[in-house]
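Work package 3, deliverable 3.1, input record:
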Amino acid sequence: MYTIGQISEMFHLPISTLRYYDKEGLFPDIERQSGIRQFSEKEVEALRVIECLKGSGLEIKDIKQFMVWVREGSATYAQRKQLFEDRRAAVEEEMRQLEKTLAMIRFKCWYYETALRDGNEDGISAMLPDHLPPEIQGLYDLGHS
Amino acid sequence: MYTIGQISEMFHLPISTLRYYDKEGLFPDIERQSGIRQFSEKEVEALRVIECLKGSGLEIKDIKQFMVWVREGSATYAQRKQLFEDRRAAVEEEMRQLEKTLAMIRFKCWYYETALRDGNEDGISAMLPDHLPPEIQGLYDLGHS
DNA sequence: GTAACACCTAAAGCTAACTTTAGGTCAAGC
DNA sequence: GCTTGACCTAAAGTTAGCTTTAGGTGTTAC
């Protein structure tokens, strides 16, 4: 059993955030000793799932729904499986998006390295064909900045 | 030259968002014809950079700073290069984080597939050693949910 | 000439996820 | 017995990034 202060240190989360999560229903079965929250292994596991789902972009109210399903037992396995499959698709899509962003950023790094070496941006259009990653072609018709 | 409505369709952004970006200083050189915004190729390119920087997690006020630097010309190449290098590091870190999240999600997908097949979660602990990706070991001491 | 559009502004409103504030309980140490 | 420290609540406040509202302009179509 852990106090809220111990959990706060374990997860590097402010105490106020843990209380907020509790108020939002993310620890539906948490016990109390004369008013004081007793975090058990169950809540620790819940927090690991919370971090995962939050990291995948899920909102607090939907994480709460998941916690409700957990409490409902085996009748909700299908819903919970679906939730994680949707999360998988969402995270994979986000990673694809980040790859594109990264290609653009890498190009911009090259662009400013070159501009800095030359003292201006004027010769860059001529060098572009060799340096444009395919993701950026078509994006860069003209183009300072 | 494009109207705000045309740009809205090109970028799939609401007109209100474009006006908001303008108010926040993201199109510092935009021209007007009797009050009406004239989006040129310059603003189109600005929007591509905005999408990129936003996708990398940068806040609007910092994107505005970038636009100010662009207007200041060659004196700010170094700052702009640094900005994109910081973005590269941030996006790469975010992708590493997403990989971890994805490992956990994939494990959860497997977990619920198994629970659904078995009708309960009770036999899963015994199967764990073969199915835990390394990222999740140590995380999963006990653990339903 | 009037109705429909596409544009404009300023200001208020909204949402999520916290954080802060104000005030209170309780146990341990001096 | 009183102060310190860790816990508690309810409610108000904060921030980013929009969105909505209310009211106005200017051009084109009938």
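Chain A touches chain B through 46 residues (CB under 8 Å).
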